[in-house]
């Protein structure tokens, strides 16, 4: 559904990412992992047009995404950013309605249909009760749910999430990632999610893409990618992978302390 | 802890009482705020209009002003002296309307600049845009135009050009990477503004005669009389403010940052261009005929933000109405405190606005709300 074809990104003449090629399939969660600063967020921003790419193509439903007008891009691909620096002025409902921006005329009048779509999105992420609250006063987990609802209101079937669990506690991490997984499994979304927590990637992703030094070094199911042999050189320290006692998947630990 | 509570029992009670009093004051405040904000702003505007039209060398009772105005639109006879009619319609109203338009323009464009730069302290004056418009106007005034009609057209156009160029210059100077921090924005605005003002001053002092008038204008005095300045600014201000009202929803989306706005499907660059041009057009029109008047574009949108929140769909129209009322009241003060002598209205707005700005800065520092 979303395919990246040899994406190369340069910044100030330095190559950040080179020749990244992989697909994100409908009904699957693909996790983007790798050390800090490897370019996970940059790749997500590039796919959504926020960073220029030096080479390659992004295909979304067979459209050359970056050649499309900005409104049409937003109808194909929705991005859930990290919940930081949210403006204080808006309520949850107003924020989610902003997901309809790509569908409004230039006068920006929201119709009853837009409102219905926004309400359905809010119900989907369990933020309906928060509708009248200001986003600035919500907790991190609640804000993240609002941002996911806003992305759902875009009615795009491809979702990109940038570290949605970065500042959340365990319970909220699980809540957000279960929701993401349900969206893929039950509603057929194609989901690409940047995660720095390898164990969360192991638990919730169908496939894992491992970035290292600006290149894609491994791609596949979590047990195939999350191995001590592949992870140790990428992270530059000795890593062991055990069998997770509860679900039998890979369980990643750093050896040193 | 317990001992302190017992000792402070009486204090605690009076604290409670003052707290409940404060709460009831707050609830009145909320009641006032929940009443239609438009009614409040329009109410303030009507009061300011009537007062401004009433007060002057010859004072006309506000009721007579209302009666005279109504007699023009409704078939009722106004039973007032003929001299009142002349004073009101030929002298006072043109000035009142020009002042109201100027206030509306400055506050409306101030609110828009705040949204554009995602910064509640932006204002046409602090951004240097007003000074840029002023320089443009002075350059146009320095040229000997063959006809006064042409100069009426040339001065606002030159002011507009100056305003747009200054806005772009300040914005590019203030940018740090992908953000425009408040500190660099204000510094760039003040530096560029000071430069523009000094060039204007130089031009004015070098030229003789005609430009002397401009010095008074520069300080923000409504020196020109009659209806012609009103006719000259009306189309630009109505056009500029109309566009700003139309882009208020995109401005809301922009508050989430350029990246998110793009991801939501907003053509960020186009919206920014439209806002810069419309806000600069509005500012320039105001500056071209009323001089450089500071802090209206900052204080009025801010008060409205405090009362009714930062949704630009509401903030921009309310700032327009509130700005008209605010500048009328400032002008009223300027005309009356030293009567019969008149202060430039820019002096009054700065005297009230600058301390307000300082207060905002301190408040902002505590809350870190950008």
Tell me what the structure shows.
The complex is a heterodimer of chains A (257) and B (370). Chain A is an alpha/beta fold. Chain A contains 9 helices and 12 strands. Chain A has a domain at 87-155. Chain A has helices at 40-47, 70-76, 92-97, 112-124, 140-153, 170-187, 198-204, 222-225, 228-235, and strands spanning 2-11, 14-24, 29-33, 55-60, 63-64, 77-80, 158-162, 190-194, 207-212, 215-220, 239-243, 250-254. In chain A, the strands form 3 sheets. Chain A has a 6-stranded mixed beta sheet with strand order 6-7-8-3-9-10, sandwiched between helices. The model of chain A has no long low-confidence stretch (mean pLDDT 92). Chain B has 16 helices and no strands. Residues 1-12 of chain B have low confidence and may be disordered. The interface between A and B is medium-sized, with 32 and 25 residues.
Structure keywords:
heterodimer; A: 257 residues; alpha/beta; 6-stranded mixed beta sheet; 4-stranded antiparallel beta sheet; 27% strand; B: 370 residues; mainly alpha; ABC transporter involved in vitamin B12 uptake, BtuC
Q: What share of residues are in beta strands of chain A?
A: 25-35%
Order of strands across the main sheet of chain A: 6-7-8-3-9-10
As for the number of domains of chain B, it is 1
Number of helices of chain B: 16
Order of helices and strands of chain B: HHHHHHHHHHHHHHHH
Strand segment tally of chain A: 12
- Number of distinct beta strands of chain B: 0
| Oligomeric state of shown chains | heterodimer
Shape of chain B: globular
Count of runs of 4 or more consecutive helical residues of chain A? 9
CATH topology of chain B: ABC transporter involved in vitamin B12 uptake, BtuC
End-to-end distance of chain A: 41 Å
What fraction of the residues of chain B are assigned to beta strands by DSSP?
A: under 5%
Structural class based on helices, strands and sheet pairing of chain B = mainly alpha
């Amino acid at each position: 559904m979303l395919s990246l074809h040899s994406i190369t990104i340069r910044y100030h003449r330095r190559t950040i990412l080179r020749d990244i090629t992989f697909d994100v399939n409908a009904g699957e969660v693909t996790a983007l992992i790798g050390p800090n600063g490897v370019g996970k967020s940059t790749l997500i921003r590039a796919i959504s047009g926020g960073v220029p790419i030096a080479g390659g193509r992004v295909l979304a439903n067979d459209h050359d995404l970056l050649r499309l007008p900005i409104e049409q891009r937003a109808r194909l691909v929705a991005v859930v950013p990290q919940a930081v620096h949210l403006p204080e002025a808006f309520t949850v409902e107003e924020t989610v309605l902003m997901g309809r921006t790509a569908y409004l005329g230039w006068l920006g009048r929201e119709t009853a249909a837009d409102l219905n779509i926004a309400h359905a999105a809010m119900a989907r992420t369990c933020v309906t009760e928060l509708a009248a609250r200001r986003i600035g006063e919500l907790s991190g987990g609640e804000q993240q749910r609002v941002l996911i609802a806003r992305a759902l209101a875009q009615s795009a079937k491809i979702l990109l999430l940038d570290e949605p669990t970065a500042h959340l506690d365990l319970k909220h991490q699980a809540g957000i990632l279960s929701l993401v997984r349900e969206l893929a499994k039950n509603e057929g979304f194609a989901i690409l999610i940047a995660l720095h927590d390898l164990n969360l990637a192991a638990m919730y992703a169908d496939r894992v893409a491992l970035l290292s030094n600006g290149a894609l070094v491994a791609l596949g199911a979590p047990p195939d990618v999350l191995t001590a042999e592949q992870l140790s050189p990428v992270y530059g320290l000795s890593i062991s992978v055990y069998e997770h006692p509860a679900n039998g998947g890979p369980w990643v630990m750093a050896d040193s302390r | 802890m317990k001992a302190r509570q017992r000792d402070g029992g009486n204090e605690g009670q009076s604290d409670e009482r003052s707290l409940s009093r404060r709460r009831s004051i707050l609830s009145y405040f909320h009641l006032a705020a929940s009443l239609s904000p438009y009614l409040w702003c329009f109410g303030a505007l009507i009061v300011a209009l009537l007062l401004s039209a009433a007060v002057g060398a010859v004072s006309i009772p506000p009721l007579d002003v209302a009666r005279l105005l109504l007699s023009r639109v409704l078939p009722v006879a106004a039973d007032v002296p003929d001299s009142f009619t002349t004073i009101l319609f030929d002298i006072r109203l043109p000035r009142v309307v020009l002042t109201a338009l100027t206030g509306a323009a400055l506050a409306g464009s101030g609110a828009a600049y705040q949204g554009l730069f995602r910064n509640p302290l932006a204002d046409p004056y602090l951004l240097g845009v007003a000074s840029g418009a002023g320089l443009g106007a002075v350059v146009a005034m320095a040229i000997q135009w063959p006809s006064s009609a042409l100069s009426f057209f040339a001065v606002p156009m030159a002011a507009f050009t100056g305003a747009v160029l200054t806005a772009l210059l300040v914005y590019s100077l203030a940018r740090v990477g992908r953000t425009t921090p408040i500190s660099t924005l204000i510094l760039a605005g003040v530096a560029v503004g000071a430069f523009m003002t000094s060039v204007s001053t130089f031009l004015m002092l070098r030229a003789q005669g005609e430009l002397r008038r401009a010095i008074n204008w520069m300080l923000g005095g409504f020196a020109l009389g009659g209806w012609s300045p009103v006719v000259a600014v009306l189309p630009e201000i109505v056009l500029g403010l109309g566009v700003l009202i139309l882009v208020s929803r995109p401005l809301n989306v922009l508050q989430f940052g350029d990246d998110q706005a793009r991801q939501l499907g907003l053509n960020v660059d186009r919206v920014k261009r439209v806002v810069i041009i419309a806000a600069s057009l509005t500012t320039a029109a105001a500056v071209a005929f009323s001089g450089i008047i500071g802090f209206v574009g900052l204080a009025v949108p801010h008060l409205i933000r405090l009362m009714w929140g930062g949704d630009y769909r509401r903030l921009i129209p309310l700032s327009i109405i509130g700005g008209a009322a605010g500048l009328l009241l400032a002008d009223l003060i300027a005309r009356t405190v030293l009567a019969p002598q008149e202060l430039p209205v820019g002096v009054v707005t700065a005297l009230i606005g600058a301390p307000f700005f300082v207060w905002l800065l301190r408040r902002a520092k505590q809350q870190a709300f950008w």
